[in-house]
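Why do we bother with holo predictions? Because pocket geometry can differ from the apo form. Keep that in mind while you read this record for zinc ion.
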Amino acid sequence: MSLLEKVAKTTEPRAWRGEIPIASRYTVGIAGERFFREIKDHARFLGTRCETCGLTYVPPALFCERCFAQLDDWVEVTNTGTVFTYTVLYLDLDEQPLAEPDILAYVKLDGSDGGLVHRLGEVSPDQVEIGMRVEAVWKPPEERQGAITDIKYFKPV
Ligand SMILES: [Zn+2]
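The structure, written out:
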């Protein structure tokens, strides 16, 4: 079948063999760039605010998902939050037992309507609970790279 052949019956599976030269590059986008630069340079979280809807987006969004307004009101959000939900990992990606269990949580950041999925530290699995207050523990400035891993973990406060 050639690319010029007309498909008359869309219910019959068709296939083209060969290669399609597609190149792509992932970027974090305009809002993500500012978000991660602030993490790297100042160990702070930024969000964007929609006054119309009363929502603060973290990670920041350039458009409100409710009213579609362009958002250019950037606000600093605290590095504290609440464990909204969590899970405890006992195996690695190769299904081998971890030396220590890993706790992953969705932390809803104070002063925002969003949050981040990240590790919890300085706490054992039997101590974690939904609603637990936590704060971000940052890597030292010389180790930060502008990535979510610039946060070592969230620890209880
Ligand atoms: Zn809105």
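The domain at 29-156 is CATH 2.40.50.140 (OB fold (Dihydrolipoamide Acetyltransferase, E2P)).
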